[in-house]
Amino acid sequence: MNHPLRALLTVSLTIALACTPRVAAAVTIYKCTTPDGAVTYQDKACPARQRQSKLELSNAPIVTPTPAPVVTARAPTPTSSVAQAPAAPPPLPMMYACTTYDGEKKYLSDTLPVPYPVPLGALGYPGQSLDQAYGGRDRLGMSAPEEARRPTIGRGPLIANAQVMVQDPCVPAPRSQVCDELRRRFDANHAKLRMAFPSEKAPFQQREDALNAQLKGC
After folding, report:
1. Tens digits of per-residue pLDDT, 172-189?
2. Domain housing 45
3. DSSP for 84-147, written as a single string
4. Does some domain include residue 27?
């Protein structure tokens, strides 16, 4: 067999093996020669008017088709069905709503006020003369001049000037009242910041930043 025919046979076999899912170990190739001398090779019998010869090819390779790659479906990422709660506002500073001991004035305080002294006269004591308060039935301990004097609230060395400790009653201030007080403090500090000289602005700016942070909770 000449080289062109061998090359043609090799190409034909390669194509046949590539297109066949699995080829047997032995393969029969038919050589067909036409009356005018043309030669062809095929894997089936030659037509009736052509000369036929068989070529037995042994130890032909077994071609196994390459399996398709396995695609693994990725499970969808589970999404949380629970809605995230909005971030809680920063806590407000603690303040106390207080009333003066005499009930005449209300105010807010950052801390609980400490007890402080006031004259007994400011509390309306005594409501009787010193003679009635301290003389008793036998008038002992009271001189004549003292006996005749009436108690003068807030004046002199009388009992009305004696000191007594009092404390303003306080309760935790409600949220709305705390926010109103923070806004009032912010406005007052901002006015001072605008009027301050550049060298004096630092403490007012720090105070404004701190009040801004507290107001975020309102």
Report:
1. 999 999 999 999 999 999
2. 3-57
3. PPPPPPPPPPP-EEEE-TTSS-EEEESSPPPPEEEEGGGGT---S-HIIIIITTTTTT--HHHH
4. yes
